[in-house]
């Protein structure tokens, strides 16, 4: 019934306003239709077709109709003029038929094209999923069981560069980072228990916790514990999982707290929360703690997290050697503008790019960092500079500084890794470690 | 847009006092509620009109954690102005002010103009530092003083503008010489053009004498 009403309304309008002999049927949900009054329907219809009440000359109308894009649910039906009106001249009828056929052909063409596009997308997605699936199989069945012998083979290194599938990422990171410190799950539990004790005594304002922690005043430790609380809520705030009440809030708190008990001489340093967070996203709590502690124990990370300024400057100087070698023009431009590498490198190195790059890209950087070590962190930095070399050369100090401390959010991943791959980490036959 | 002067500004103070949020509010006129903590240094720049002069501020927003001091200290050199920020709801951040001040006076230019900002003014219910106490501290240490709110935007623009105005006054009175190395002040592109065409520069100075 509703449909009939709708049709009548439409055709009535057509008869009144124009005498083009076809009608458009949009599939209107019945339920919605039954509650609407005809006027409303007509208004909506007019909005849909982009036509107002203004009477249009038939010619204009024809053009409009040709521009109309048929949806897959819309049918075009050619009808003769109603009997109560004079018949169309044969010529006009012929013309209309022709136009009608053109429209149908066009609509079919477009639908075919869209279907092809969809099929292609689907194929690509399947291919991608297949390759990830295959990679997972290779990692699980071939590489991980024979880690020691296979991890350095050419084939594995190449697969590694492509990015580790998320499901095995944590395992590979753990194996690659290793556990030089021989931290056990029990040790983690002990450190965590001590951290919890401290939190309790602080929150109750209780007695001094025993002072074996070399050279750090109670006030300092308190400040550091307060800062952890503050920073957790400021770690990947857009993910909303580490904030108070989020599912990983306590986990992140535990790992950072346990670390301050495990290494009171290092304590909590800003930037750590990002590293711990990325590990938590890929590993269980205790394993994340083991990877975290071992990762921070690497020479480059120790130098930075202890804020050993002298050693940091050595790293920056080495970086500049490779910067000049790889990108001499940009290097000169930076020198001219007094733009020193610490301005952008500090954030990148402290957070291992997890704050400055989109998370999926950061994880891929971590993949290769686990494979190649600290050298890759600096290679990535040069890759970023290379990727944006053209724009950076045109900027002045403040714009470069702003750009590099807040990279664009839509980095193209393939171009990004291609530009990292193009960076040579050899300078006058010297490798990174030698410089 | 061209400018008459370029000032290097610092934003310093303890972690979590809202330094980056103040900067964001000043530049974007919005409160950033999903803010990260700053590691090392971040930047902002804005051209403001102070009494008819266009001043470009180049703002260095530094990390607040004590541990980063050795790094952030190296950014003080040649700063013309600074926002020294504490959190009115945290006495600890207020107690740290003396340390920050010593660093700034020692490492930036001698004539650095500092404005003390008691941030989070909107959290008056949790206040731990009174306005009177802080303004006394400011007076004793020759600082300008405002209570600000990066959340509502209250007094944020004013803090930057007042600091810039004081620097401009010092330039006009001859107390500050923009051409001295490490003053943290440079002529902007507009001023440089004027210097290069002496006739217009003369006209400009005549105008200045008039007022």
Short description:
The complex is a heterodimer of chains A (435) and B (211). With 435 residues, chain A is mainly α.
Fold topology:
The complex is a heterodimer of chains A (435) and B (211).
Chain A lengths: L1 H16 L4 E4 L4 H6 L2 H12 L8 H10 L7 E4 L11 H54 L3 H4 L3 H8 L4 H12 L7 H19 L14 H15 L16 H14 L9 H9 L4 H12 L2 H7 L3 H18 L1 H9 L5 H9 L8 H14 L1 H14 L1 H5 L3 H9 L7 H9 L4 E2 L2 E2 L4
Antiparallel strand pairs in A: 1-2, 3-4
Helix pairs in contact in A: 8-18, 9-11, 10-11, 11-12, 11-13, 12-13, 15-16, 18-19, 19-22
Chain B lengths: L4 E9 L5 H10 L12 E10 L2 E10 L6 H4 L8 E7 L3 H5 L1 H11 L5 E7 L11 H10 L3 E4 L8 H17 L12 E3 L1 H8 L1 H13 L1
Parallel strand pairs in B: 1-3, 1-4, 4-5, 5-6
Antiparallel strand pairs in B: 1-7, 2-3
List keywords for this structure.
heterodimer, A: 435 residues, mainly alpha, Arc Repressor Mutant, subunit A, Helicase, Ruva Protein, domain 3, Cyclin A, domain 1, 3 domains, two-stranded antiparallel ribbon, 22 helices, 3% strand, elongated, disordered N terminus, B: 211 residues, alpha/beta, Rossmann fold, seven-stranded mixed sheet, 8 helices, disordered C terminus, metal ion binding (chain B), nucleotide-binding (chain B), Small_GTPase (chain B), lipoprotein (chain B)
The helix fraction of chain A, in percent, is 55-70%
Number of domain modules of chain A: 3
Q: Per the principal axes of the C-alpha atoms, what is the gross shape of chain A?
A: elongated
As a whole number of angstroms, the C-alpha radius of gyration of chain A is 33 Å
Could you please describe the fold and organization of this structure?
The complex is a heterodimer of chains A (435) and B (211). Chain A has 435 residues and is an all-alpha fold. Chain A has helices at 2-17, 30-35, 38-49, 58-67, 90-143, 147-150, 154-161, 166-177, 185-203, 218-232, 249-262, 272-280, 285-296, 299-305, 309-326, 328-336, 342-350, 359-372, 374-387, 389-393, 397-405, 413-421; strands spanning 22-25, 75-78, 426-427, 430-431. Chain A folds into three domains: 91-162, Arc Repressor Mutant, subunit A; 176-203 and 215-297, putative rabgap domain of human tbc1 domain family member 14 like domains (Helicase, Ruva Protein, domain 3, Orthogonal Bundle); 303-434, Ypt/Rab-GAP domain of gyp1p, domain 3 (Cyclin A, domain 1). Chain A has 22 helices and four strands. In chain A, the strands form two sheets. In chain A, strands 1-2 form a two-stranded antiparallel sheet. In chain A, α8 (166-177) runs parallel beside α18 (359-372), α10 runs antiparallel to α11 (249-262) and α19 (374-387) packs across α22 (413-421). The radius of gyration of chain A is 33 Å and the shape is elongated. By secondary structure, chain B is of the alpha/beta class. Helices cover 37% and strands 24% of the residues of chain B. Chain B is globular and about 50 Å long. The interface between A and B is medium-sized, with 30 and 23 residues.
